[in-house]
């Protein structure tokens, strides 16, 4: 089977592989211009990627059809910017980050510099002064978790225009007030926006946008429920409105009916993201673990 991949320096590498083989000898045959030491360093520095996942073991098995590439060596996110997010994945086309709660995706009139966009812009310019970053989607200030940025405008356009087709999974963890009795379910309604820019839910489709949310209870305490929420549509404030409809507003979300704020922020976290890479067409999977404050609410004896 023929295999062709793009390395981080843009050069094309091709190699035929008919049977499973160990990674190190495969890499040596794939890139003969590199020394054995150089290739070992790539593994050590977490720059070898197989099917979109970083691999460090020399004896990992490469199978026919696997995509092998060299990921770009990452610069360090510097100073105060490192407190805003961590980089989960980076390649020549895009960056996936785990954003902290309290951080804006993009600047507002009141905050220009302490945003994910501004910090990532500074980060990519460390690699080259002409580098830029482009927003693909957003998370609310108080929502933590996985967020995607493009490195080129054509990548941004491709992802945004084909969002429903390329997104395979988009899952959030939500801390809902009260005990949600149903183990799982689906909420389906049309969302409308009033003059105060607040969304409300209706079964009347006229002028609204269809929103569909699946939920599953993963933890319960006497006062709260942790839900795993899957978006079948990606509407503004969709989860927040739908959990209000359910009668269990997201903790800390006063705008949509919350009466408590046990963790000092809104209890919403973008935990899982799967999508098709716009260039390589690889199926990428990312996970951002539940924040410790979420888990602490369900420690025995806390409620």
Concise account of the structure shown:
By secondary structure, this protein is an alpha+beta fold. It is built from 7 helices and 18 strands.
Structure description:
The relative contact order is 0.12. The chain contains 7 helices and 18 strands. It folds into 3 domains: 69 residues, Structural Genomics Hypothetical 15.5 Kd Protein In mrcA-pckA Intergenic Region, Chain A (Roll); 83 residues, Pseudouridine synthase (2-Layer Sandwich), CATH 3.30.2350.10; 101 residues, Pseudouridine synthase, CATH 3.30.2350. The N terminus is likely disordered. By secondary structure, the chain is an alpha+beta fold. It starts with a strand and ends in a 7-residue tail after the last helix.
Shape assignment: globular
Radius of gyration over alpha carbons? Answer: 22 Å
Report the CATH topology name of the largest domain: Pseudouridine synthase
* Largest sheet descriptor: 11 strands, mixed
Q: How big a fraction of the residues is strand?
A: 25-35%
SSE order and pairing:
Blueprint: E1 2-6, E2 12-16, E3 21-22, H1 23-30, H2 36-44, E4 48-50, E5 53-54, E6 61-62, E7 68-70, E8 85-90, E9 94-99, H3 116-127, E10 134-135, E11 144-150, H4 153-161, H5 163-166, E12 167-177, E13 184-193, E14 199-202, E15 209-220, E16 224-231, H6 238-246, E17 268-276, E18 283-287, H7 292-296
Parallel strand pairs: 11-17
Antiparallel strand pairs: 1-2, 3-6, 4-5, 4-7, 8-9, 9-11, 10-11, 12-16, 12-17, 13-14, 13-15, 15-16, 17-18
């Amino acid at each position: 089977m023929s295999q062709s991949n793009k390395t981080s320096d843009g050069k094309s590498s091709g190699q035929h592989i008919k049977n499973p083989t160990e990674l190190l000898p495969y890499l040596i045959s794939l890139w003969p211009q590199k020394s054995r030491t150089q290739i070992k360093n790539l593994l050590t520095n977490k720059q070898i990627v197989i099917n979109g996942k970083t691999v460090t073991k020399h004896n990992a098995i490469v199978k026919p059809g696997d995509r092998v590439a060299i990921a770009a060596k990452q610069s360090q996110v510097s100073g105060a910017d490192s407190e805003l997010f961590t980089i989960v994945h980076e390649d020549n086309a895009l960056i996936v980050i785990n954003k902290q709660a309290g951080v804006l995706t993009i600047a507002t009139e009141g905050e220009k510099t302490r945003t994910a966009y501004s910090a990532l812009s500074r980060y990519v310019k460390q690699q080259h002064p002409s580098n830029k970053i482009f927003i693909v989607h957003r998370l609310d200030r108080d929502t933590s978790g996985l967020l995607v940025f493009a490195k080129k405008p054509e990548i941004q356009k491709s992802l945004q225009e084909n969002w429903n087709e390329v997104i395979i999974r988009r899952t959030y963890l939500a801390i809902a007030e009260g005990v949600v009795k149903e183990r799982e379910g689906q909420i389906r309604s049309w969302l409308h926006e009033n003059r105060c820019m607040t969304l409300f839910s209706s079964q009347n489709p006229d002028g609204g946008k269809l929103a569909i949310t699946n939920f599953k209870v993963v933890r319960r305490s006497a006062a709260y429920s942790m839900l795993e929420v899957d978006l079948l549509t990606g509407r503004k404030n969709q989860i927040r409105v739908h959990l209000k409809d359910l009668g269990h507003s997201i903790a800390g979300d006063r705008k949509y009916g919350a009466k408590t704020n046990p963790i000092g922020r809104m209890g919403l976290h973008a935990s899982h993201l799967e999508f098709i890479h716009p260039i390589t067409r690889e199926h990428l999977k990312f996970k951002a673990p539940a924040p410790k404050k979420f888990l602490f609410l369900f420690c025995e004896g806390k409620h």
